[in-house]
């Protein structure tokens, strides 16, 4: 009561308190404004311009012509199709694999700490290094084809065949990314009260029934997080595709992704405005899919 009366008597108290709060927030506001808000606003500006980079930067306002050009550019649709195929296969596979690994490690197997380290090693390894290693494995006379030939299975030109080039990147990224999500699932599994499983066991539920009716429902918020992070990350595929194809998106545009197309528009064709328009298209797709996932997983309750 004394505090309320003091504020009424001295209104400067509110001003001082507000200023103190903003001063504490100022570092975060400056960082977000400099590295998030301003770049987004500048990208909006670029998407409405035709930018001349040679001989000095010049801007020419062209309205929404960069966006209308997207519908006419065949390579944009190829990149979207490749990226969508990549996301549709990699995200569910790595999520299921991560859950299986987490449940296995949480089951009390011997040497589980060593298995955790072994599984997690690909995640802490440089993406460029992993890509170069897999390029060696995918070579026509590489380790993978030797294994397929030994097993009596058909071999492939993983780096030069448009039918399998993108699938080679999928295999590599599933193997290297699933352990990261495994750790997230493992932490969530260890947070589930054991009393729930004990009660279910007393009611006669077997291990599979406990997994279906206890584990999966309680992991739903974590699955939403894993799927959302996976979608955002896979839609931003760039470095592996760039290294595999030498920056061309080949063979025959088979590994061309949206982010690689943005790179080509900026650094090869010097089309900053068009690259910004492609970036906003990618952002719109990611936001739309995230909202759909939120609806499916009930993310509003997280």
Properties at a glance:
single chain; 302 residues; mainly alpha; MetI-like fold; two-stranded antiparallel ribbon
Give a short summary of the structure:
The protein has a two-stranded antiparallel sheet.
Describe the structure.
By secondary structure, this protein is mainly α. The chain is built from 14 helices and 2 strands. The protein has a two-stranded antiparallel sheet with strand order 1-2. It is globular and about 75 Å long.
Ends apart, CA distance between termini:
36 Å
Number of domains: 2
CATH fold name of the largest domain, please?
Answer: MetI-like fold
Largest sheet: 2 strands, antiparallel
- Give the strand line-up of the largest sheet: 1-2
Number of strands: 2
CATH architectural type of the largest domain: Orthogonal Bundle
* Count of runs of 4 or more consecutive helical residues: 14
Regions with little confidence, pLDDT below 50 for 5+ residues: none
Backbone shape: globular
Give the CATH H-level superfamily of the largest domain: MetI-like
Protein structure class: mainly alpha
Order of helices and strands: HHEEHHHHHHHHHHHH
Strand content: under 5%
Rg (C-alpha, Å): 25 Å
User: Taking all residues together, what is the mean pLDDT?
Assistant: 88
Helix content: over 70%
Keywords: Cell membrane, Membrane, Transmembrane, Transmembrane helix, Transport
Pfam family, one: BPD_transp_1
Transmembrane segments: 21-45, 86-105, 117-138, 164-188, 218-238, 272-292
GO cellular component, one term: plasma membrane
